């Protein structure tokens, strides 16, 4: 199959970017989207041009590094699918594909399709952990957790931190990401000891990183490759209010 690509090219944070057109022919429709970009880069290198920078790691839909906007949609047209798990058979022969980096004030473009998502790391560092001394790893059944709670915690922990929620939100909000990490910890017994300080610190850091406010459009859940529920945001708001109440007493 043949494809016409329009890709955002930007030298660095300070430079102005622009869309550059490329044509690829005789592509295998069973190639992944990233394999298609690999093919393009091999072509560019052979021709003496600069290859397109883009994030990737596991290529198995686990690490969350491969995020980009494809025809205006985070990760592309398939629901609950990361960019690396998207294949060319999802597009039509001869189609024009617009490829851009995630757009958000808190995600500055480093080069081409590569953005700086270290703001997520700083939110996690502010409270997304259990700091009690647990010694050696306890027996898996030492602390009883009901099946329902375990499933809910796992659903929240499934967030891979790709940033699609931020890029999709019209306000650039990180509420879904932050709330998923908070919910995961607060549901489990090990995370309840620091539940108040955790939510206050993580929400404060989220605001400090210049992420926007949640406006309840639920676009984040729609574009999330893991299908993380916006109910996590409701829990985060509850935990935040609870923490403020007990801090005042």
From TrEMBL:
GO molecular function: 2 iron, 2 sulfur cluster binding; electron transfer activity
Domain 4Fe-4S ferredoxin-type: 150-179
A biological process from GO: aerobic respiration
Cofactor(s) in the UniProt record: [2Fe-2S] cluster; [3Fe-4S] cluster
Protein family: Belongs to the succinate dehydrogenase/fumarate reductase iron-sulfur protein family.
NCBIfam families attached to this UniProt entry: PRK07570.1 (NF005746)
Protein name as annotated: Fumarate reductase iron-sulfur subunit
Organism: Chryseobacterium carnipullorum
Classification lineage: Bacteria, Pseudomonadati, Bacteroidota, Flavobacteriia, Flavobacteriales
Protein encoded by which gene: frdB_2
